Amino acid sequence: TWAFPGGRIEGDETPEQAAARETLDETGYYIKPIKKISERDHPQFDFHLIYIACDLDITKVKPAIEVHEIEKSRWVEPSQLKDFFETDLDAGVAKYLGL
User: Fold this and answer.
1) Do the domain assignments include residue 7?
2) How does pLDDT run along the chain (99 residues), one tens digit per residue?
3) Which of 19, 36, 48, 70 is a good FRET partner for 92, with 20 to 30 A between their CA atoms?
């Protein structure tokens, strides 16, 4: 199953700080959060989703050998995202990406 990096907000973190921490933990990529683009309740489970637009810092990447939370990652064109999600792609994310 493909998904955006994510997880719980810890302590006094902002959603943007949590997005940066979870992305690094799950992918090895350092990101700079830009802005919140959407949020909603999960359609199947009891939790709230917040989507954050980010820039990737290509000058810093953790070696993949240190990342243990994923099997693989893949960059795709925004137009291909719907091919990778088993559930619906968030409408706010789709709008932000021009889909």
Assistant:
1) no
2) 778 888 899 999 999 999 999 988 888 889 999 999 999 988 788 889 999 999 988 887 765 555 666 777 788 888 888 888 766 788 898 899 888
3) 70
In the block, tokens 């954050």 appear at 52
Residue with tokens 């955006």: 4
How many whole angstroms separate alpha carbon 45 and alpha carbon 27? 24
10, part of any domain? no
Q: How many domains does the chain have?
A: 1
* pTM above threshold 0.70: yes
Query: Residue 39 domain-assigned?
Result: yes
Structure tokens at 60: 């810093």
Q: What residue has token string 């359609």?
A: 43
